[in-house]
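We emphasize that the prediction below concerns an isolated chain of 189 residues; any contacts that depend on oligomerization or on bound cofactors are therefore not represented. The input was used exactly as deposited, without trimming of termini.
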Amino acid sequence: MGRPMGFRADVAVDKAMDLFWLQGYAATTPQELAGEMGIGKGSLYNTFGSKHALFLRALRRYSEMRLEYLTDLFAAPGPSRPRLAMAMAVLAGVGEHRRGCVMVNAAAELGTVDDEVNRIADELFTGIETIFRHAIVQGQESGEFDGGKSADGAARQLLATVIGLSVLAKSGGRPEMCATVVESVVDGL
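Result of the prediction step, given as a token string:
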């Protein structure tokens, strides 16, 4: 009979996600992960299999958190415009930190060599685009946004803006400049 697991895997994944977000995949060592999660390297491998498997699990967790946030945000009553602006700023990390988006970071670092990272990123980006599209349609129906514009095209534009702003936030882009971009893009709807 094995020893009972002395840590919660979900909490450990959240801690690993934070470290990967801060340092990137390649720069994060298994020893650093184990230390951050408060476990031994053996427990890391026994529970998660490998650094890469833990990274993928952290990316899936990040995706779940982001889509849950957006779903909750847009389920609430009220106008779409301020919620879209808030969602864009939060997703890109504008003014909150200089980390950007963990998924954008992962895709930039590993996208040319890791199909699984690309698949997880694509699922998140498609989910974000779908939620944005629904919010835009809702805004068009309420008269908030121009009903003559393509909701599909506008949702893609918002997603592309979030991805670009994420890179700007990570590279030290001025929060006020990034906030102006968000405002301009949403006002253009």
